[in-house]
Design brief:
Elements (H helix, E strand, L loop, with lengths): L1 E3 L2 E10 L4 E8 L2 E2 L5 E5 L2 E2 L5 E7 L5 E8 L5 E9 L4 E7 L3 E8 L5 E2 L3 E5 L2 E9 L7 E7 L4
Parallel strand pairs: 7-15
Antiparallel strand pairs: 1-2, 2-3, 3-4, 3-5, 5-6, 7-10, 8-9, 8-11, 11-12, 11-14, 13-14
Amino acid sequence: GEYKDYEKEGIWYVYLKKEEKKYKVFYDNGEMMVSKSEEINSINDSIEDQYYKLIFKNNCRKPIQIAISALNLDGEWETEGFYNFQPYEELFLANTENRTFYFFAESFDNELTWEGEKYLTIQGERYKFLKRTISEDEGYGNFLTTLTCED
């Protein structure tokens, strides 16, 4: 990294021998910006590029709730929910190396539903989850699913 007025500034690369992990760390006027720091494989290769980052966007005028089922980075299926989305809000929900995941969503007023054929249980209730498969042409990184509705 570099120094500015004897303070760490900008991007620094750190290797923690005890953890055997590499990090890209950001400094501003000598203060580490924890929220911007990330684990990496090398100086040029972010660890984030090794999986799909599942992001959902509520493109409706109504608040919705969503549950998701995806293969986690340990290779186990996890079903989680419900996450609340305000109108036009975008949220990150999961990381996965698998191209297939499932989700169920509905508006708070239960007038709109995004559902499919696969039954999964959330909070003791069974819901019909919609299957989504990421194209083989898509590389790892951000994958956006936009939920739309007509009011």
